[in-house]
Amino acid sequence: MKIAQISTNTIPVPPKDYGGTQRDVYYLTEELVRRGHEVILFAKKGSAANATATFEYPTDIPSEQLDYIIQNLPEDVDFIHDHYGIVARANPPVPTIRNSHSKGVTGVQIPVYVSKIIRRKYGNNKGYSVYNGIRVADYKFRKKKSGYLLYLGRLMEQKGVHLAIRVAKRTGKELIIAGTLNDKKYFNSKIKPHLSKKIRYVGPVGGERKMDLLSKASCVLFTSTWDEPFGLVLIEALACGTPVLGFRKGAVPEVLKGMPQLLCGSTKQMIAKVKSRYRFPGPRKCRRYVRVNFSDRIMTNRFLKLYKKIITEKQYKLIKNSQWNKRKQVLQTNPIEGAE
Question: How far does CA 139 lie from the centroid of its chain?
Fold first, then answer.
C-alpha cells in the first residue's frame, strides 16, 4: 500500500525528548516501511524517519500547509493517516482517518482514538480506537533496581505531582521528579516547598538520561487525576522492566488491564502498595507485557487491519465539493511557493 502519514508542525519526527504523537508517527512509519509499504511523510522541518519520501512543511500557517500537502501528495496514494487534523477536515478523495491523540475531534468522517474510554467519552462511540505502541528494543531494560520512586511528565496540577510527593513522604522513599514545568504557580506552591535531598526535581529529561531514570527506578508513580487519553509513560516504564502505579482514571485501567495489581483507587492505596512492593510483577514480566500488548508491531498490525477494513467496506464517502477539491482547483493555476 502507499500510505500518507500526516504529522504535526510542532515537533520533528522522531522527537528528541517529548512528543508522544510524533513518536507514534515515527514508529508506525518505520514499521510500515519495514513491511514493504510505501510511506509518504509530511512533518516538521528536521524530521528524519525512514519514510519512502518526506516532505517538510515550508510554512507555519495551517492553510498553507494543507495546500503544500495537496500539491505534493501522490495521485495514487491508497490511504491517508492524519495525526494533525488539517487533511481529514478537508475531506480528500482518498480513504482518510483522523487519529486523535488527546480528546474528541469534530468535522471528520472517520475518527480514531488512542483508547476506548476516550472514544466513548469524547467521541460519542463513533469511529475506532487503536492503542499507542513503542519499539521495546529502544527502552533500556534493567533487572536490578535502585530504591527511588519516579514521577515523569509535565508539572501541572491535573498530573498530580503533589500526590506523588505525598506518597514519597508517607513511605519514606526518595522521589525524583522529571519533566517540563508547565505551571509555575502550581510548582511554587505545591512542589517547590517540598524539595529536599530526598525529593528532587531534575528538570526535563530525554534520551539516555530518561532511560536511566526509568530503568533504575523501583517504581514509577502515574498520579494523573484527569482522564488521560492513554498515558505513554505507563508502557515506557514497563518496557524498562519497571512497575508503574496509576489511578483508575481515563485510559489507565485499559492500559494496565493485564496488571490489575498496579491500579490504585486512591493515594492511600498507592502508599500501601509502595510499602508492599513485593507484590509487583517482576521486570521481565513487565517488559513482556508491553511486547505482547503495546509494541510498535502490534500497533502497526491494528492500523493495517483498520486501513484494509475501511477500504474493503468502502466506509469513506467521496465528497465532490470538498474543501480539498476546491483548493486543488485553485492550486492548479496558482501553485504555492515551496511545493514541487
Answer: 15
- The alpha carbon of 205 is separated from its chain's Cα centroid by a whole number of angstroms, namely 17
Q: Which CATH architecture has domain 136-293?
A: 3-Layer(aba) Sandwich (3.40)
On the CB side of 185, CA atoms within 13 Å amount to 1
C-alpha distance from residue 239 to each of 142, 186, 231, 333 (Å): 10, 30, 13, 51
Q: Which of 49, 45, 39 is nearest to 79 (CA)?
A: 39
At 159 the three-state DSSP class reads helix
Cα separation, 334 vs 323, whole angstroms: 16
CA distances from 225 to 10, 18, 176, 182, 264 (A): 26, 21, 19, 16, 12
Burial of 140 (0-12, 13-18, 19+ CB in 10 A): middle
Q: Count CA atoms within 13 Å of residue 230 on its CB side.
A: 22
* pLDDT value for 332: 81
Query: For the segment 80-139, what is each residue's pLDDT rounded down to a tens digit?
Result: 999 999 999 999 999 999 999 887 788 899 999 999 999 999 889 999 999 999 999 999
pLDDT digits (tens, 9 = 90+) for 164-219: 999 999 999 999 999 999 999 999 999 999 999 999 999 999 889 999 999 999 99
Count of C-beta atoms within a 10 Å radius of residue 23: 22
CATH of the domain spanning 2-134+296-333, picked from 3.20.20.210, 3.40.50.2000, 1.10.10.10, 3.40.47.10: 3.40.50.2000
- The amino acid that residue 230 corresponds to is F
DSSP state of 190: I
Banded model confidence at residue 333, pLDDT cuts 50, 70, 90? confident
E strands present in 193-289:
199-203, 219-222, 244-247, 263-264
